[in-house]
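note to self — DONT lose this again. spent like an hour looking for the file last time. sequence + predicted structure for the chain T wanted, 117 res
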Amino acid sequence: MQEGLFKALGKSSQGFEMSSDRRNGSHRVSLRGEMDMAVTDAVDREVRLAEASDASSIVLDLNRLEFMDASGIHLLLNLDSRSRSNGGRLRITRATHPQVRRVFELTGVDELLPFVD
């Protein structure tokens, strides 16, 4: 993806949307709606594309995520593990929706993942 380009990756029937853009060397993957098992493979593929690029940082933006199940938590832990072995470029913006924040607290991943505010 060229610098400054935005790629809308579509909307699923479950109300999930994902977009991806690259600016100033940072690759941002933004998620909106509900992330469950039906969409985690698509999110993983998009993050892998960012990992294969020369982006200095990769930001997974969960700010507009309204729901996440255990498959989403599993994906985030895998992405973090991959990032740690590949330069540590991943940063995750915290979800603002109370349900998603509660899932992070209950599972303890709020203390494990590389969140940025």
